[in-house]
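Sample pair:
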Amino acid sequence: MRSSRTRRRIRGAVVALVTLAAGLVPVAGAHAAGSGGTLVHTGTGWVRGQLTDEGRQFLGIPYARPPVGALRWKEPRPARAWRGVRDAKGFGNRCVQTSSWDPGYEDPTYTEDCLSLNVYAPDGTAGRPVMVWLHGGGLTAGAGADIVPDTFARTTGTVVVSVNYRLGAMGFLAAAGLDDEVSDGVSGNFGLQDQQLALRWVRANIARFGGDPSRVTIAGESAGGRSVCTQLASPTGRGLFRAGIVESGAYGDCAAREHREAVAAGAAFAQRLGCGEAAGGVVGCLRGKPAKEILDAQGGFDWSPVVGGAFLPEQPATAIAAGRSARVPVLNGANRDEGRLFAYGAYDGQGRPLTASAYPQALADAFGEEAGRRALKEYPLSEYSSPAYAYAAAVGDRLMACSALRLNERLARGGSPVYAYEFADRTSPPFASIREAGRTFDFGATHVNEVQYLFKHFGLAAPLDAEQRVLARRMVQYWGAFVRGSAPRADGAPAMPDQRTRPGRVLSLKTASVGGITVSSSVHRDHHCTLWDSAAS
């Protein structure tokens, strides 16, 4: 009679043969979780990444089932397991979105099978801190592939994950019929629920790539920063991250749409697509429409989160001010000339530069008659080299700079560390998609421009000069220190001010020839925030 040890050996051999036949064996190149291999076993199957000069990367890993057919406008569901080894050397599909100037986005995308993520992991030891990046793009465009953070991961010793999530109507449609299907009775948050499912994937799997699931920082720029702000206020995201980074994302005080307003907009959207009176039901009609028709019809609507359900029971600003948001450390800031990108897009980029005679009405159109009159006094044309730059200053101050300072104040009241910065390198090169326009329009330290100092933006290394490269290294040190769990610090530079103990003081990120990195106490005044705070109240 065989011994129990012999039986275990035979059983192990049989399991090994079955695994080999199924294509699931850890073949040459596989390593134990987090030890540096390019073949990693996730909870849904094996993935094979690749080794680069910067470390390991695993691209296009599905974290959710494709939201197609009956799953369109459903809460995301975890990806199904696959057999064999999945190639993870190329980015997944971008989610449905229109074309843009950005490199690689010249054509629209109609692919709904897009819920994937990318992992960048240094070689070496396990237990590294993790940063999950949520891309920008106004919640209607963009993808995790917009940044390549491989150098950031290597130099900071962190694991970085970038995420795709549903956008536009596909991610944020609210409708009465959809309310009946979602778990909390409030539809329209599918894109942000995708982000939370990705965070759950990270919690379950990141140790296999060398990361520590208890040390996750969520980060994002523009709509990605707004997403971080919203996730801070979402009770269903508690415990999925230990810190947050908000870059130019506090605009509009992170406000979500009211449920009634969002459902009414959804009804108008359905009407536009000919589904308003559909015999088979509005939702069924909408699910039957091709992605191209959905995309072509979404212009003119606000696609953003919806407040009122368990996912987001109250407005983020309210939750944060009342101490009902996640009490985690936050690094938050904006750029000195945020509005120049928007001014260019509205005027010069359309071939019709803003004139002095049209300037007063432009302010009224942007802010309303009363606030527009007050802005005309605060931003006189005599102080700017062109009407476009005056308009840009007003737009950027209201939209980004002052809302970032208000977010600092609300977060600091909750007692957790809040670190404030302003990217102020006005000599920074325009980011890739507006670089040619930068020959005739001075973008300064505009919206998005700080991203290229941290990562390869659209996969491209920024054309930084020697001083800018020094600033970029310092910024990576600040961000890296924060992701690792300490206060943001950099070699030979001041610490980023904590708003609990140094309220209103902001780290100004500039190159050495224009003063270097300093701590400013005048950001509120520089951006006319007394005006804009009163307009927001």
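Residues 57 and 120 are 5 Å apart (CA to CA).
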